[in-house]
Amino acid sequence: MPNDQSLSFAGLRAFLASPIFLAAIMSMFTAQFIKAAIAVLRRRAGSLKDLIETLLWRTGGMPSSHSSLAVSITTSIAFESGTDSPVFMLSFFFALVVIRDAMGVRRAAGLQAKAFNQFGKDVRERLAVSFHPVKEVHGHTFPQVLVGSMLGFFIALAFYRL
Questions:
Q1: Helices 65-81 and 86-100 meet at what angle, rounded to 10?
Q2: For residue 146, which phi and psi values (nearest 5 degrees)?
Q3: How far apart are CA 30 and CA 72, in angstroms?
Q4: What CA–CA distance (Å, rounded) separates 94 from 67?
Q5: What is the dihedral angle through the alpha carbons of 66, 70, 72, 74, rounded to the nearest 10 degrees?
Q6: Whole-angstrom Cα distance, residue 90 to residue 109?
Q7: Residue 68, pLDDT score
Q8: For 153, what's the count of Cα atoms within 13 Å in the CB-facing half-sphere?
Q9: Which of 44, 63, 137, 140 could lock 148 by a disulfide, CB 3.0 to 4.6 Å apart?
Q10: Total tally of structural domains belonging to the chain
Q11: Is 25 exposed, middle or buried (0-12, 13-18, 19+ CB in 10 A)?
Q12: Coil, helix or strand at residue 146
């Protein structure tokens, strides 16, 4: 009889080898890699630190890694469990929430933060008062979400059909 440690190691191995996990992680990192490559080509990534930050953390931009990840998971679950499974339905609607949030709420909050920061900068310059800018969260446009979603779908398709 295997001990608890070997069971947890086997479970971790199965998790890491799962096509759902592999498609999800590949879609997320591919989207971030494309985003970093675009930043380098447009010369927005000025240093190695900027490039690494874009690869690992930055939000917004082309393509949407949030959409890519959510659609990849949903597509993988469709292949694994079928489109009539409760888990697929959960992932489908969760993906819709993620995509809607990326395009709507986060984008609107980012635009408001940008306007607030500009206002604060103007007030600081005119009245010589202290102002600390707020973080500008970058949401996504429809094309960024569409490309991210297609990327996630095709990566999941590749893991299940190739």
A1: 170
A2: -65, -45
A3: 12
A4: 11
A5: -170
A6: 26
A7: 96
A8: 8
A9: 63
A10: 1
A11: middle
A12: helix
Amino acid at 118: Q
Euclidean distance between CA atoms 104 and 64, whole angstroms = 13
Range of the domain at 9: 4-161
What's residue 128's pLDDT?
Answer: 83
Calculate the CA 107 to chain-centre distance: 14
Chunked mean pLDDT (size 10), the chain, 162 residues:
63 90 95 86 71 71 92 97 96 95 79 87 87 80 94 96 84
Structure tokens at 59: 């939000």
| Structural tokens at position 42 | 């447009």
DSSP H helical ranges for 57-101? 65-81, 86-100
**Residue matched to tokens 């990326």:** 102
Distance of CA 74 to the CA centre of its chain: 14
What residue type is 32 in one-letter code? Q
